[in-house]
Each structure stands twice: as structure tokens, then as C-alpha cells.
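Sequence only, no structure available. Ideas?
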Amino acid sequence: MLDWKNRAGKGDAGERAAPKGTATRGYLGGLLFSKALITLVVVYLLVTVALGWYWSEEPDLFPVQQNAQAAAEKEGRKMVIGYTTVETLKTVASTMLNKPGGYISNDRFPPGLWMDNMPSWEYGVLVQVRDMSRALRKDFARSQSQSTEDGDLAKAEPRFNFDNRSWVLPSSESEFQEAINSLSRYQTRLSDPNQTGALFYTRADNLNNWLGDVGTRLGSLSQRLSASVGRVKLNSTLKTETVVAGQAPQVDEEIVETPWMQIDNVFYEARGQAWALSHLLRAIEVDFADVLAKKNATVSVRQIIRELEASQEPLWSPMVLNGSGFGVWANHSLVMANYISRANAAVIDLRQLLSQG
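Reply:
I predicted one. C-alpha cells follow.
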């Protein structure tokens, strides 16, 4: 009996020792799993940061006239008036969709989810694409206000005005691509001598209408960019009953300042609009060459393009600086506002030239 008890005791001790080794192995396994998980997360973060940096690179300017000629040769089409403008609009919109990282504004996963500068740039490009598509539909492709609008252009404009942050059902990319396809169909008919349905009218009044939208956009951008440092704005809306004879009218003042977290968004939106508009104006310079020459307005167009392209110089700072107007640090928003304001002033001069008889 004693031997049996001793053997049983030893067996019990052995059985009690087994779980201790199992717990150790379990602890080591959990530790290795935690290290592997942390390593995986760190690698994922490094990859997304690298992708985010790469995707943040803004597309370069492209040669408008050579791009249109290459597209016409590839498709076997004839270069007609209006072809360059439509092809440039298509290329600008396609670049927004197909640049490195694709279209980022509606991303739901990193790194696109974390990025805000490139979505702002995309929105700026989209604003100018929408304005030009509307001008094509209501002005450039119609002989007069009572004429019928082009069917493909009537489909393209609302698709470009689709929600720019829609992820699925349908996605923004699919809607914008359908709009580009509609422009391609219009462009094919425009360059086909056997079809008379697609038209493009190069008149001073048509161009002036679109430039009115351009001036409005640039004026708004210059005000928003200048508000990066905060400034006093006068309320010029005066009521006639508040004006007293012999006294200067009272004008309300308010401080207008862009929120700190929105400064870089406004800056990159301006960069996007300037990028798109510089290409569209170069296309207009080609298709409206006769109109501009008759109005002595070619130099004015090139001046606008020069100011817009100057705003595309590389930003060497890792972030958009917001120093005071005459302070030690730079203020990139004010520099951009300078270029935008000069371009807007040139647009105003150009419209005056076009409106002269």
C-alpha cells in the first residue's frame, strides 16, 4: 500500500507539473503572436505612409496642343475647331481619376482616408471641369439661346456634378468616367465631316460667358486665401435709411479668418483649380485663336496662363506655412492669393476686350 501511495504521489506530482510547462508555452506563444502583430501593424503603417506620400504628388502640366494632336492621330480623327478644348477637358478629368492612387476623395481606407490635401486638389480640378462642361452644353455647342442642346453634352454635365465623395452605388469615379465617355461621343461626331449634329461655335459672347464664371471662381479663391491671416472685412450693404445728410455712413466691420485646420485645404483647392484652368485656357487659345486675334486679346490670355502656371511651382516645405503678412515665416496662402488675384485681374481685362464691338 505504501509503495502504491508513493507511486501515486509521484504520479500526481508529475501531473501537476505538466500544466506549468503548458502555461509557459502558451505565454511564449502569446508573446510571439503579439510581437508579430505589432510588427505587422508597424509595417502596414510604414507602407501606408509611403503610399500617402507618393499619392500626394500633384500631376505635372501637360502640353495641350500636342496632346490633342496625338489623340486625333491615334483615333484617326480630323483636327477641327473645338477638338482641342474637348480633348483637354477629357484629359484633365481623366488625370484626376487615373493619377497615382486614383481618385482619393471617396476613399474609405488608409492612406486615402487620412489624406486631405489631395482630395482638396481633386475638388479644385472638378470645379473647373464642371464649369467647362456647363459652358460646352449651354454656350459653345449652341448657336443661340433657342437652339437645341447637344444630347451627349446634356448627359456629361450632370454626371460631372455628381457627389464627389460617393463610394458605391454608384461611385464618383464611375459617374465621372461616364461623363468622359459622353464627351468622347460628342467629340467623335464633332470631328466627323459626315455628321452635322455636333457643333462648336467660337464667338466672343460665348467665351465671355465662360470667363465670367472663371472670374467668379478666382475672385472667391483670392478672398479665401487672403483670409488665412485674418483680416477686417467691411460690410458694404448699406440701408438708405441709415444714411444721414452731412455724415459719413456707418459701415459694419467683421474679422474674417480661415480656420487653422482648413488653410491647407483652401491652398490645395486653389492649386487644383489653377492647374485645370491653365490647361483649359491653353485649349481656348487654340480654338478661339481668330476671335482673340481680332480683339487683340491673345496677350491677355497668355498673361492669365502665365500667372496660373506660376502658382504650380513646387512647394518645398513639408506643410503649408501660415506666417503673418510681414512676419518672419512665409505665408504660402498669401503667395498663392497673389497669383490668383493677378490672374483674376487679367480675366477682367480680357472680358472688357471681348465685349468691345
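Confidence is low (pLDDT under 50) at residues 1-15.
Hope that gets you unstuck.
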